[in-house]
Amino acid sequence: MTSIEVSNLQKTFQTKRKAAGLSGSIRSLFKPEYSSVEAVRSLSFQMEAGELLGFIGPNGAGKSTTIKMLTGILHPTSGEAKVLGFTPWIDRQKLAYQIGTVFGQRPQLWYHLPAMDTFILFGKIYELDDRETKKRIDYLTEAFEIKDLLDVPVRKLSLGQRMRCEVATSLLHRPKLLLLDEPSIGLDVVAKQHIRDAIKRMNQEEGVGVLLTSHDAGDLEALCKRVIIVNHGQIVYEDRVSNLKRKFLTTKMVEVRYAEEVSKDYAINGVEILKVGNYGVKLKFDTTKTPVDFVMFNLSSVGDIVDITISDPPLEEVIAKIYKEVENSSLMDNPRSRKSIGTM
Amino acid sequence: MKTFSKYWSIFQITLINSLAYPGELVGRSLMIIPFMWIFYQLWKVTFSAAGADGGMISGLTLRDTLWYLMLAETIELGRPPIARTMSESVKDGSIAYILNKPYDFLLYQFSTAMGETIFRAMLNAVFGGLTVWWLVGAPNHPEGFLIALPAILGAWVLHFCINAMIGLSAFVVEDVSAFTWIYQKFSFIFGGMLIPLDFYPQWLQTIAKFLPFSSAIYGPSRLFVTPTAEFFISVMTLQLAWIFVLVFLLIVAYRRGLTQLTVNGG
């Protein structure tokens, strides 16, 4: 079953332009100039019910604008979208009962009051019975480990604690779909892990679908099965996260430690030597150009290996590489670009 | 019932929230004391210069004028800055959370506005009332307050409609401070906030009394000092007519504004 279906969605904003300085301000007062910014261009994708879908891209890529259109807050310039069977900008209120949202940079909890007050208020807003609200709060406080935080004014909570409460609040009414816009922004490693674990649990236990935008590739790796990468308002890559890794994680980093001293002229064909120490070497190679067994053979022929570490580059580097390849291949204006890049 | 209960809960939580900083709430309300003292000095001199010591100007005694101004200030100082709040929520993007919940956006705004109004207005009425009592004595018609109460609530509904309409313009222009400034000045002049409209020349009185600003300030304040059945009916009729017109315009403006909204931020 499809929970989100987007077809040729487009959003163009009119932005006022003004030259710098006083004269520019005066001129713009009498003759304002506007330019069009295409925040989202011909966006089409689908998301299955209960799916964990990552929606990533650099700043200004159109991720948040897309989420705001999918929640019905923004009207698109053109195109179609169905979220859980509703057209968001027409059936915004009906849809609101079925979805939960978290905008990482904006609090929805009442800042001066304890989070419990917001939970109770949301229970009323989503028209839950008092008993049902209480039961749900008990369940969510256990899942998000926030029992001790509920009676503390939100302003006194750390960002990590607050975000756990924010996400828990958005799940109070058992939404079928959770739209998370940068939920891990500004969080430390432990807080991120807490949030990710809780979201994963809610997905497994309640089957809630999650559409997640993030700058953090860690969120993607930990949570999502499928990823859509957007840039300049268009999809530039769409695939399973495992395929993304397989296709793009072709560079391996190797650190080797030998029993004997290593020659300073250490070299292997097709391998980039990053650092040569007295007993160790750090190198990098592309598995599509240089076979792994060839590199391993050469490494062991130099001397007795005491220790070896082989690692993939961080996913962030992979994503940056995709952005760069898209920019270079000038496929940005072609809506089909994602297929070309997807098969690279 | 559930629908009413959600707006009642929004009203309640805003009410509780307004008590988060009681010192600030009380401190702000104390401002009405110097205002009333200045009004007293000003109108005492005016009545004296007009040769109306202990008498009346245009049907109002000094005592009536002061009690009138006390209620006018209470209504004005009690209302929250709805337009500015809406404009800020558009500017900082937090409107995204207000719009994506299953409630009517305008009723949500109204519930929060009333939640913010109650304590502010009550404190203003207490401090303002005590000051005026001390300066000129008890009101001539204490029962006038109860009679004026529906008109006071109506005044806040009117204020809400006008301010929400200004706030909605933030959907398009983002910054609404110029509009709120203009509205405030119109309220001062045509609402009778500084001078009871009865003291205006007849032609200006006629114009001012038919504008919505007077229904939001002059009407309830004058009713407090002249609580007659006839005046009650005339104030409430005009006020309800304006509420009807402005609510209609507000709904139209909201529906139009929603399609123009640009939500800022990431």
How would you characterize the overall build of this protein?
The complex is a heterodimer of chains A (344) and B (266). With 344 residues, chain A is α/β, with parallel strands linked by helices. Chain A folds into 2 domains: 2-12 and 41-246, Rossmann fold (3-Layer(aba) Sandwich), CATH 3.40.50; 250-311, Alpha-Beta Plaits, CATH 3.30.70. Chain A is 36% helix and 29% strand. In chain A, a hairpin with a 3-residue loop joins β11 (272-276) and β12 (280-286). In chain A, α4 (115-125) crosses α5 and α6 (159-170) packs parallel to α7 (189-206). The relative contact order of chain A is 0.12. Chain B is mainly alpha-helical. In chain B, a hairpin with a 2-residue loop joins β1 (56-57) and β2 (60-61). Classes of the chains: A alpha/beta (344), B mainly alpha (266). The interface between A and B is medium-sized, with 35 and 30 residues.
Classify the fold: give the CATH topology of the largest domain in chain A: Rossmann fold
- What Rg of chain B, in angstroms, do the CA atoms define? 19 Å
Helix content of chain B: over 70%
What is the domain tally of chain B? 1
Average pLDDT reading of chain B:
89
Strand content of chain A: 25-35%
Number of helices of chain B: 14
Number of strands of chain B: 2
Question: Biggest sheet of chain B, in brief?
Answer: 2 strands, antiparallel
Instruction: Provide the helix percentage of chain A.
Output: 25-40%
H/E topology pattern of chain A: EHEEHEHEHHHEHEHEEHEEEHEHH
Gross morphology of chain A: globular
Q: Which oligomeric form is depicted?
A: heterodimer
